[in-house]
């Protein structure tokens, strides 16, 4: 019983996803359509990226990068600006998921090296918000943008006219909150001499770097995902077999059960009819609230069937990534990494996360109210 309780505490989000998915199965009985719920491309990309990031971690690359960063910054405020800025700008091109998969583990390492463990919650919270809102800037920044950009026929210029005001306001609000943080000096000095790498370690770094850039090509749909998945499996089986045991398979399962829940909700006629009635004239607010329950990507797919105001829907589902932990699947990635740290305050993190997200949501929803109806 004690093990069950420990597991429930460690994998709270997965347990909630399983519970909600099972409840939805009473309303939509399992059938062949269930197979269409699962976005295998997203799962494959997540798997590849997690293995690659674990591979980099084992080579000590993150430690070396952390030392380099700590040489350049001297205060906590500077460090936070760099970390949050990386998530904000990189998410525009490598997606919010990839940005958080890349920088949250790196952030945890850097803050521990700088003996700033107590600042981990605000930094990771701001990074998550930065990645979710920075990804709003481009059609390839997140899946909902790519989907709506594709089906709506919105041109590049029109797209930027919709998203740019939100991105700029978000950026300045992030800067403001970073500058409000204490400007304490960093407590530790990094190593002055980088470690010498063996030839095998250099080959591993080269191979992992190639795989990472192939992942980016897959994110941009330049490269199909199946060859990348096969290549990644071959690489890790041959050169870094132990990495496959380090992958967070519970996170992948969390996505699977949320896909099932979302798919079932879309097939319940009462929910669909209610959304159709509610959506007219309230596109931003309804899409924002829908994201809080089913996350922004499925909300975009579901609601796009009931409106031709793709500009308002685009704004609503991107702002909708703010709020609950499941409002954006990318937020789950940050939480999972944070929850793996021993003796951390998960409740404190959720409180910080919720309050900060509400602040940004209120500001951006107020901005969205100025859009022509």
The computed structural class is mainly alpha
Question: Element order, helices and strands?
Answer: HHHHHHHHHHHHHHHHHHH
User: What's the mean pLDDT score?
Assistant: 84
Strand content: under 5%
Mass-distribution shape? globular
Walk me through this protein's architecture.
By secondary structure, this protein is mostly helical. The chain has 19 helices and no strands. The longest helix is centred in the middle third of the chain and has 24 residues, at 156-179. It is globular and about 65 Å long. The termini are far apart. The model has no long low-confidence stretch (mean pLDDT 84).
Topology:
Layout: H1 2-10, H2 12-25, H3 34-37, H4 40-59, H5 61-72, H6 76-94, H7 96-113, H8 120-134, H9 143-152, H10 156-179, H11 199-219, H12 225-238, H13 249-266, H14 269-279, H15 283-294, H16 296-303, H17 310-319, H18 329-339, H19 346-368
Task: Compose a concise summary of this entry.
The chain is mainly alpha-helical.
What labels describe this entry?
373 residues
